[in-house]
Specification:
- This protein has about 70 residues and is of the alpha+beta class.
- It has one domain (about 1-60).
- Helices cover about 15% and strands about 50% of the residues.
- It contains one helix and five strands, in the order αβββββ.
- It has one helix at about 1-10, and strands at about 15, 20, 25-35, 40-50, 55-60.
- Strands 1, 2, 3, 4 and 5 form a five-stranded antiparallel beta sheet that branches.
Length: about 70
């Protein structure tokens, strides 16, 4: 398993979670994510999505241990 994870880190890595809350007529989704590019730089972001709005907020100076 570790060899597969190491190979994924070399080719890039993405892991995200999807949280959605709604009240029948309105909804909001939050998508926090961890990603590593082929350059090995670790990044994190939070995407916020509603019916008429979306944005992605990057988190600077982020690292995670695998």
């Amino acid at each position: 398993m570790q060899a597969d994870q190491d190979e994924n880190m070399m080719n890039g890595f993405f892991e995200g979670w999807y949280y959605r809350q709604h009240n029948g007529s309105e909804a909001v989704a939050l998508i926090p994510a961890l990603h590593t590019g082929g350059d090995g730089v670790q990044r994190a972001s939070l995407q916020v999505v509603t019916g008429d709005f979306s944005c992605s907020v990057p988190f600077q100076d982020f690292c995670f241990d695998r």
